[in-house]
Fold this sequence. Notes:
The chain is an alpha/beta fold. It contains 11 helices and 12 strands.
Amino acid sequence: MTTDLKIVVPGDYPPQIQNSPHLDRLKGRAEFILNTDRPKDMADKIARVAGAEIIMNTRGSVTWGEEEFAQLPDLKMITTCSIGTDMIDLEAANRHGVIICNQPGRTAPVVAEHMFGLMFAVAKRAAYLTSEIKKGAWPRINNLMLQGRTLGIIGTGAIGAEVARLARAIGIKVIAWTYNPTEERAKELGVTFKSLDEVLSEADVISVHVKLTKKSRHLIGTNEFAKMKPNSIFLNGARGAVVDTQALVTALNSGHLMGAGIDVFEEEPTPPDHPLFACEHAILTPHCADMTPEGVDLLNGGAVDNVIAYLEGRPQNQVS
């Protein structure tokens, strides 16, 4: 075993990669340390990874920024167990010469299916009607037929592209907005690219799938919700901070939106008094769109692939 090289998983809770058969591929390559609980504080986090050249970050709640990098001179590489990298300050990583690798598009089919499920749950008022029936009520309220409607996708990366494919398969028209639209991409996806305002005003369902950046933070706010059709559906499968939460709550409570399907939040885990919890027509899941056996296995395998590629001198999926 190469004992002078250390790989650390700093906080694998809830369980993600522990017990994964993919870890067997790292045997003999380095000292491997896996922590099955979250760090208690900054000092605990730093102590866990002290001396590590590689961090396998399996949980987005374990974050890395300037303060951490400054205390970890041996750190050379972090791989996420995710597509997103918002738990890492990429500019700080770059300043300290730390390579950051993610897994772009790896679980796109899994996440897209989850978002499709949220869309149907909202359109059929599944949570609301279940709650009312349990109270002894028998409500008469219209649902929404999705076939023949228009879906507006904001962000046409791997997940947005797969959502478009699923939607077209059942007869939903798809329009989209992206930062860099091309005719070739539109043809490949079978969508029509339009301006953001046009997508918001023409779609019956809006599904958001952009990366969280300084540019996309609160991309969807009060003005954007006001432009959406009355009785439309809003879905967020990107990151919580892409949407102004209070603006979404206002749009729901005013009745302007039919409902919302949300898998991501500005604060995770969510506090018990989160304002979306009081919205009758919000379907909420705890950032678990890729949490299927298939999705977990894909992410675990991808994280190990990234480590092995780095060890072999050919870093892949590098974002910083």
